[in-house]
Amino acid sequence: MAWNKGDYVVHRRDGICRITDIAELNLSKDGPRMYYILTPLYETGSRLYTPFEQGDQQLRDPLKAEEIEDLISMIPGFGSDWIGDEKERQRHLTEIVRNGSHESLLKAIHTLYEKRREQAQAGRKFHASDERFLGEAEKSVNREFAFVLGMAPEDIPEYIRSRLEKGR
Question: Taking 90 as the threshold, does the pLDDT of residue 159 lie above it?
């Protein structure tokens, strides 16, 4: 898919970005080629250069509001997919944060919330690496949902909670 200057896209690694330009640049040993020049919405001062021919692998359109509502409505049906082996869990969570679908991210967030709650009830600490992955997953989801819904990212967890309570 080809995007245009001024379009908002989701970069696979850096989230919501605005295409500020499309230009031929000489940034590699392969010589000049066309690049999408992106400005991340939530990372001021950053600029990304995505080769035009890699656009379909690195970029996608943001979700639509209806898709977000559908995803939120799925949350009550999520079970807990806790992986007991810490190294395997870290590998799995890293893969989800990097390449996971929105459904996978929300499932991981749900599972981590449940485990954190269980740990707190048992008087145990939540593992630092799990907390880090939870933060990364939440940041990814919250930023895209906020952009699409016209909200601040920090308001998204409460928005999701209120949508889930209305659905009960």
Answer: yes
Q: Label residues 128-151 b or e (16+ Cβ within 10 Å = b).
A: eebeebbebbbebbbbbbbbbeee
The Cα 83–Cα 129 span in angstroms is 13
Domain that includes residue 48, residue range? 8-60
Report the number of distinct structural domains present in the chain.
2
pLDDT tier at 167 (50, 70, 90 boundaries)? low
d(C-alpha 144, C-alpha 141), whole Å = 6
pLDDT of 149 reads: 97
Rg (CA), the chain: 18
